[in-house]
Amino acid sequence: EDQVTQSPEALRLQEGESSSLNCSYTVSGLRGLFWYRQDPGKGPEFLFTLYSAGEEKEKERLKATLTKKESFLHITAPKPEDSATYLCAVQAGGSRLTFGEGTQLTVNP
Amino acid sequence: KAGVTQTPRYLIKTRGQQVTLSCSPISGHRSVSWYQQTPGQGLQFLFEYFSETQRNKGNFPGRFSGRQFSNSRSEMNVSTLELGDSALYLCASSSTGGSQETQYFGPGTRLLVL
What we know:
Helix content of chain A: under 10%
Number of helices of chain B: 0
Oligomer: heterodimer
Strand content of chain A: over 45%
């Protein structure tokens, strides 16, 4: 059974204080690892897809990396508008996504 | 391009009733997946439809069902509602539902069962 564990559950940062979120996974035959951002009361918003170990992708202050066992979402110099829940999901085959519980990020001004 | 839309956005039902939720995918997308999100269980896969056929199913009881129409719009139905069915129901669409395709989520329908 596919499993995804995200840590920490919650993270408080000061504006400009860089940090990383972790996503550990156990899956048979990873086809893709997805990062989403979810704001309260809204649906998840797509951020990145990573397909193979060693791959990295960047978007503004966010950078996602992938190894054979985990993925990191690095946030550089975060701003208050980066506050959200960040979700990691894996896909082994077909369309089914298996999600982690998410990391709730709060960035204080 | 318009995103995924879901209606209604909010619903209040009582135990034992049934409910139908609707999802319109991004134009041109033929795969629609449904997920249930609760504080305790997170996001869990319900089922996926492609070309009007259920192609994949999660571990939910038979009270949860769905269908897809020829225009790719999808509905999910929950019969004999239980308190534990209170959740945010999300649908996601992708082009063909193939591996490695990005799924785009709608805003969700918030269901409260009293």
